[in-house]
Structures are given as C-alpha cells and as structure tokens.
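Narrative of accomplishments. A recurring question from our advisory board has been how the design workflow behaves on a single, concrete structure rather than in aggregate. To address it, we present the structure tokens for one chain from the evaluation set, followed by the sequence designed for it. No filtering or post-editing was applied between the two.
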C-alpha cells in the first residue's frame, strides 16, 4: 500500500499556431493539479558517446482518483520537470483507487 505524501504539480499548455508549425506554448502553461501524490523511481540509464552524453530518468507517479492528467502534460516533482510518457492509467479496483502516470526527463 502507498501513501500520497509527495507534492507534485501537473501542468498543461495550449497549442499555439505559428506560420509553419503548431506547438505547445509552455511559457503560458497552467496548473491542472497541485497536491499530494505518490512518486516511485522507475528506471534510469545513460547513453555515452563522443558526440553526446545524456541521462534519462523515469518515474511512476500515482495521483489521486479523478485527477485530470493527459499524455501531453508535464509533471513537476522535487524541482524537476518531467514529460508524461504515454496515456495515464486509471485503477478503479480495491481500496486505493488512483491514476498512474509514467514520467521521464532527459538531462544533457
């Protein structure tokens, strides 16, 4: 069993049209959820090469049931920003109903 004791913020940005592309306007993002969740490490790995050195970190974030979160959102936890990876999964069984999100970030 897990407890919701980690502070997280879920942020969402609207799509902005420009002359050539459509992209999310993260400079004007808004909070869609701010509160307690349960965060667990998922995995971390590094890719080293002479041209580039990167590190990836993945988390599993368990949000309260009914949290409005989408695959294009971002999650802020512990001073870092993570991208939501894939569709959130709703768990409606047992005593702790929740929404599970996989989040990842890349560091150069």
């Amino acid at each position: 069993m897990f407890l919701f004791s980690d502070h997280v913020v879920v942020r969402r940005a609207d799509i902005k049209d420009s002359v050539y592309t459509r992209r999310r306007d993260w400079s004007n993002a808004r909070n869609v959820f701010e509160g307690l969740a349960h965060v667990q490490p998922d995995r971390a790995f590094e890719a080293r090469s002479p041209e580039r050195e990167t590190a990836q970190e993945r988390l599993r974030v368990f949000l309260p049931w009914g949290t409005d979160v989408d695959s294009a959102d971002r999650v802020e936890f512990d001073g870092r920003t993570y991208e939501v990876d894939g569709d959130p999964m709703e768990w409606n069984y047992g005593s702790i109903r929740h929404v599970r999100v996989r989040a990842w970030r890349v560091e150069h």
